[in-house]
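A protein record in our archive is deliberately plain, so that people and models can read it alike. The record that follows is passed on verbatim for readers who wish to inspect the format.
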Amino acid sequence: MQQTASLPDGFVYLDDVISGIRLDLRYCTTDNFVGAQIDGYLQPRGILTVAAAEALAQVQAVLKPAGLELSIFDAYRPQQAVSHFLRWIEDPADCRTKADYYPQTSKPDLLRLGYIARRSSHTRGSTVDLSIVPAERGAAALDMGSHFDYFGPESWADYSGITAQQQANRLLLRRLMMQAGFVPFPMEWWHFTLEDEPFPDEWFDFPVQ
């Protein structure tokens, strides 16, 4: 367990409350659609509201007997990170990640189409981006048919151009998350928001550390 910094009331670190949770937090690295560590991500810690973390623990408990675990790409996101995304969109010269993340569209269209928002639900603290992986370390993650933050139809929840196994993997994640009270985002198979989120009208900006 890592050293725990002080969090605002109502927030917790995921690895403090969910046993075996896997953290693959891309915005604390350069392995993301911007190609740089994102503002506000100072340490690779997953943070959510208490309510969202407790709901997520239910999903983890269902997966455990099957030898599976959740892997978290992103959880709470400070507003300064969203601002970083918006500055990136406004820089037309920086297209180094286009082939891997948005080959079919332009940077401004990512905002227009809803892949990136000026106000993100992540900043309210009850939205999480995640997938399912085997509990056995080193084993490959369940194949979902596209990678995290791929901005295109292949990532839509109802995209039909994937294999039956990939569809089944997406449906497993979607079913378990909805049973725990999360609402899916149609354009991203990995993105879920707690339906009864505790801060529906607040956007936070404390750093991830």
